[in-house]
């Protein structure tokens, strides 16, 4: 979940369209899908929260996507990044994804491979 008042920069495709689309759980369609996202997030059941959705039509021909966030005012030293892959073919997709977090102040990188049901502190 993200704050709607934040400034985010996303990678784009060759036509300049953003890879990530800002959405809310409330507009994702079925109540079943909303419930699954709420159960797997720390949103405290808030359907009004905002999320970024990756345009999966670009997966076959691209392998790198980025989402950059500024340091939020009032943030603590430790922040949580939540990623969820909602797909019937989630396991094969998980094997293809890693998350790289680059800390701006130290330029240190943390790379984590995604696994089903895995929680990783960064």
Largest sheet: 2 strands, antiparallel
Shape: globular
Helix content: 10-25%
Side-by-side strand order of the widest sheet: 1-4
From the helix content, strand content and strand pairing, which structural class follows?
alpha+beta
Beta strand count: 6
| Gyration radius, in Å | 15 Å
How many domains would you count in the coordinates?
1
Strand content: 15-25%
Would you kindly provide a written description of the structure presented here, covering whatever features stand out?
The chain is of the alpha+beta class and 122 residues long. The chain has two helices and six strands; from the N terminus they run E-E-H-E-E-H-E-E. The strands form three sheets. Strands 1-4 form a two-stranded antiparallel ribbon. Strands 2-3 form a two-stranded antiparallel sheet. The chain has a two-stranded antiparallel ribbon with strand order 5-6. A hairpin with a 6-residue loop joins strand 5 and strand 6 (109-113). The longest helix is centred in the first third of the chain and has 9 residues, at 31-39.
């Amino acid at each position: 979940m993200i704050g709607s008042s934040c400034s985010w920069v996303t990678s784009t495709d060759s036509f300049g369209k953003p890879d990530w689309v800002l959405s809310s759980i409330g507009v994702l369609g079925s109540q079943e899908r909303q419930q699954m996202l709420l159960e797997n997030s720390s949103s405290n059941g808030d359907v009004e929260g905002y999320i970024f959705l990756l345009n999966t039509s670009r997966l076959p021909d691209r392998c790198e996507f980025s989402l950059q966030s500024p340091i939020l005012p009032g943030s603590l030293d430790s922040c949580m990044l939540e990623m969820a892959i909602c797909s019937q073919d989630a396991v094969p997709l998980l094997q293809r994804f890693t998350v790289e977090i680059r800390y701006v102040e130290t330029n240190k990188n943390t790379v984590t491979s995604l696994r089903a049901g895995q929680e990783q502190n960064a």
